[in-house]
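Students often ask why inverse folding is considered easier than folding. One informal answer: many sequences map to the same fold, so there is more than one right answer. In these notes we will look at a single instance of the problem. The structure comes first.
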């Protein structure tokens, strides 16, 4: 979860919305931004509860794209951004914050392109601010509690929770880099009451069920990839040579998983099989969040969800 902060601009100048420079990479290769407001905090800001929402998004995103995102290149629907009370007061404030964040991220990429010695691991051929991310944001501003039901497979399902949630889709007005304008016309039959008292003025906004919104963004991404094939991260232009950044990230991800898994394996005295797949690494992280390898008892969210 990224935290929206306010960066100092020098003595006597106001602080403006931004994110920590070392976290800017979380905006790379994301189709949109997912602003999580305090009004949608879950279970006292429970990490495990947030994972259920993100798990539902992953399932829907994977299905809508028809392919597994290139996780080695940080490709995903969005990175959730925690936005404070003041910035979340109105949609216009959230849009302003997004404008500043995108400008910050793009500025770093431009400096890198100009030869600045920053972000040594970053190859701007594969890591970039997606034009769609500048043009459209999503806002998660309310959490709808859900009665948990264990399915016949013995698990609770992410989608049972995700299907009960809604998000706001908001056009930012920055669509000059897209192949065509964004239109919510196809979503009008799915539209729900905005349930916000503020004056939206000229803001183009719609509230829809979470899965509907995720699929809509996926459709836009596929549209842009069809128009601009160079945006396809895993396309035929992606070299598989050992020194290619993509392959390097894949090796780093696997090595990280091995490092994370070793203490868990030792703690469990060999009961967990050696990591060999992404799913196994994810299982290890879910069992041992934050690098703490004591056994986690099964509860509502951390274990037993699919």
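Output (designed amino acids):
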């Amino acid at each position: 979860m990224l935290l929206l902060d306010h960066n100092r601009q020098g003595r006597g100048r106001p602080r403006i919305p931004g994110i920590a420079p070392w976290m800017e990479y979380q905006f790379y290769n994301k189709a949109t931004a997912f602003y999580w407001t305090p009004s949608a905090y879950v279970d006292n800001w429970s990490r495990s509860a947030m994972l259920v929402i993100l798990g539902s998004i992953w399932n829907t995103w994977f299905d809508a794209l028809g392919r597994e995102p290139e996780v080695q290149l940080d490709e995903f629907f969005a990175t959730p951004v925690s936005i404070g009370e003041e910035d979340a007061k109105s949609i216009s404030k959230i849009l302003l914050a997004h404008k500043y964040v995108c400008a910050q991220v793009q500025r770093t990429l431009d400096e890198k392109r100009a030869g600045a010695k920053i972000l040594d691991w970053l190859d701007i051929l594969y890591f970039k601010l997606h034009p769609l991310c500048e043009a459209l944001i999503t806002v998660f501003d309310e959490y709808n509690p859900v009665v948990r039901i264990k399915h016949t497979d013995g698990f609770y399902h992410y989608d049972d929770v995700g299907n009960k949630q809604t998000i706001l889709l908001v056009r930012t007005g920055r669509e000059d880099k897209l192949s065509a304008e964004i239109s919510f016309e196809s979503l009008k039959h799915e539209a729900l009451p905005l349930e916000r008292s503020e004056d939206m003025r000229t803001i183009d906004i719609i509230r829809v069920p979470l899965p509907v919104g995720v699929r809509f963004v996926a459709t836009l991404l596929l549209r842009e990839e069809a128009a601009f094939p160079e945006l396809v991260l895993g396309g035929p232009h992606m070299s598989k040579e050992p020194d290619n950044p993509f392959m390097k990230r894949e090796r780093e991800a696997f090595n990280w998983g091995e490092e994370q898994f070793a203490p868990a394996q030792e703690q469990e005295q060999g009961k967990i099989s050696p990591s060999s797949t992404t799913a196994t690494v994810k299982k290890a992280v879910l069992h041992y969040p934050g690098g703490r390898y004591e056994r986690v008892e099964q509860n509502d969210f951390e274990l037993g969800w699919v």
